[in-house]
Amino acid sequence: MTNDLPPRRTFSVRARLLSVTGLAVVASLLIWHAQVIELLGFESSADKHPVVAGGPNGSPPPPPARSSTAVKTATPTEKPTLPSKPKKTPSSTPSKSSRVNEKTQYSEESIEGLSSKLRSRLKKATLAAKTQGVSIRINSGRRSAAKQARLFKEAIEKYGSYQAASRWVLPPEKSAHVQGKAVDIAPQAAMAWLNTNGWKFGICRRYDNEPWHFEALTTPGKKCPPRESSAVAELG
Q1: Buried-most residue among 45, 101, 115, 116 (CB within 10 A)?
Q2: Contacts 24+ apart (CB under 8 A), 11-15
């Protein structure tokens, strides 16, 4: 038995140390090289284009489609429309002419359309009759020429001739109603009272066949003139 130790394997240890050191140096160089490239801004061609899935059967993908409608800055081609001035609305106050027309409006059953002479006389007669319990009502006073013409046309159709119709209705140019100088009275009691007392107020019954028809034919207080048989006498 001897005390000799086996020889140390100095070579293999050194070789390992050198290998490790070399690997460390190489790694350091690679890291340094990558940092230098990053700092200098170098990029590979793969970094410049993103990875996109290919087309059918491995064909390259189609290029991105550009929009056919480009955004353009809208430039006004028309002048802005100015607001129009508000139209004037007609005044609600009636004009002078319209007020005059309103004053000439009257009901056929009132005394407003009658002549001033017949109107004043009929007012006095109406008050006097009322004191005796008789009410005088106007059935038809002043008429328009249009209405008188219509009434005369209807009378011709009814009685068969111009002459026969004129016994009851006169044409507009001959009618005292159109002139506001005649009035038809109702009811029968009023007709009878005015036929008896009308002369006191200057009002007279004119025709035998029309007990309702009265006109201002005399001076108040004087007797009435003789009655006519009918209006047809005026056409002769």
Answers
A1: 115
A2: none
Given CA atoms 113, 115, 120, 122 in this order, what sign does their dihedral have?
Answer: negative
CA 148 – CA 151 distance, rounded (Å): 5
pLDDT tens-digit profile of 150-174?
999 999 999 999 999 999 999 999 9
Burial label, 182 (beta-carbon count in 10 A; 0-12, 13-18, 19+): buried
CB of 175 within 8 A of CB of 151?
Answer: no
What are the C-alpha distances in Å from 155 to residues 116, 148, 166, 200, 213? Answer: 30, 10, 8, 34, 17
Higher confidence at residue 24 or residue 159? 159
- Residue 183 parent element (H or E): strand 182-186
- Cα 197 to Cα 119, 155, 184, 215, distances in angstroms: 16, 31, 16, 13
Tell me the CATH number for domain 106-235. Answer: 3.30.1380.10
Asked if residue 106 has pLDDT above 90, the reply is: no
| Rg for the chain, CA atoms, rounded | 62
Length of the chain: 236
Q: Are 215 and 203 in contact (CB under 8 A)?
A: yes
Domain coordinates in residue numbering, the chain = 106-235
Mean pLDDT on 48-59: 43
pLDDT at 236: 57
My answer on whether omega of the bond before 187 falls inside 30° of 0, hence cis, is yes
Residue 107 corresponds to which tokens in the numbers above? Answer: 């009901």
